[in-house]
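Reminder to self: tokens first, then the designed residues, so the page reads top to bottom the way the pipeline ran.
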């Protein structure tokens, strides 16, 4: 269905960065009033009748089966070995033809399937946007929950990661980029069936999912997202392609992972003359997603929808503003 990126070794530094990303997300994603819900409780794998296997194969060398748990009153998946894409289609009466691949976060060791996946997709579909939740393959973790929690504590105790070079991050995400590319290929292949304009397919990612969104965009080749969103992901400077898509960014000033490393990504996009919008919220922590909170970060989704509208992406006739050219 899609080509696989050239094989590149995963670096120890990237693995450590992803572990820290997961740990910080777990510490700060929970609304303050629900801190008692931070325990991870195993649950049965939920039915996913609409999930479509992407055909990228099983994760090489995987020996631990997929499992799910509940935390912060939301569900998470881990040890994903086979990638899937789940469509959330709008009412045809209000469908715009625009589509978004939704990439949840979780440090490449777990996926926040509800808060950063299904809830986002439902909200987009309600605005007339076809949304597709990407359950991408993950790094393996211990099967037993207590051993998994201990492994996260040990990784977190290792201290913060050094600043990651974007090229190094791309080198460590071969399977995940392949899954993202396959998702774009599938949506384009079935665009007529799903009422999607093949030229108006974007991607939004959260935390590790934001890292995957940027890596998929910068790695080039056939994914070609028409627009992208980085929600509390890293903001390291990058070499911006000449045809880079419009970029939407949202981050909280009290984010424990990415708020104190500068805004190089924003500056890179601006220097390249490409469209970028950046929302820097006073409060919100890391991992706010679709959780209802008292902070202004809760407004990120409405701002994102207004941004889509500004670029003509909610127009049924497919017109886009000059800023997106």
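Designed residues (325 positions):
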């Amino acid at each position: 269905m899609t080509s696989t990126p050239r094989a590149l070794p995963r670096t120890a530094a990237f693995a450590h960065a992803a572990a820290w990303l997961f740990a910080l997300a777990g510490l700060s994603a929970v609304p303050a009033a629900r801190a008692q819900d931070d325990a991870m409780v195993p649950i049965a794998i939920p039915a996913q009748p609409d999930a479509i296997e992407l055909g990228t194969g099983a994760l090489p060398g995987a020996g631990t089966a997929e499992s799910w748990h509940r935390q912060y009153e939301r569900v998470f998946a881990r040890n994903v070995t086979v990638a899937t894409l789940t469509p959330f289609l709008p009412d045809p009466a209000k469908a715009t033809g625009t589509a978004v691949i939704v990439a949840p976060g979780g440090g490449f060791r777990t996926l926040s399937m509800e808060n950063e996946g299904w809830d986002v997709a439902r909200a987009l579909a309600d605005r007339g946007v076809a949304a597709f939740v990407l359950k991408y393959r993950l790094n393996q973790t211990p099967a037993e929950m207590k051993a998994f929690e201990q492994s996260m504590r040990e990784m977190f105790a290792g201290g913060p990661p050094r600043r990651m070079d974007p090229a190094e991050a791309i080198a460590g995400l071969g399977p995940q980029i392949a899954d993202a590319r396959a998702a774009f290929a599938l949506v384009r292949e079935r665009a007529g069936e799903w009422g999607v304009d093949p030229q108006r397919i974007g991607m939004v990612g959260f935390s590790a999912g934001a890292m995957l969104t940027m890596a998929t965009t910068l790695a080039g080749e056939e994914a070609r997202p028409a627009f992208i969103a980085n929600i509390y992901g890293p903001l390291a400077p990058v070499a911006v392609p000449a045809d880079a898509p419009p970029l939407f960014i949202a981050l909280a000033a009290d984010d424990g992972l990415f708020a104190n490393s500068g805004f190089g990504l924003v500056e890179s996009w601006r220097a390249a003359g490409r469209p970028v919008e950046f929302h820097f919220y006073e409060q919100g922590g890391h991992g706010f997603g679709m959780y209802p909170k008292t902070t202004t970060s809760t407004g990120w989704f409405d701002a994102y929808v207004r941004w889509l509208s500004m670029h003509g992406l909610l127009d049924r006739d497919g017109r886009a503003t000059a800023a997106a050219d």
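The chain is about 30% helix and 15% strand.
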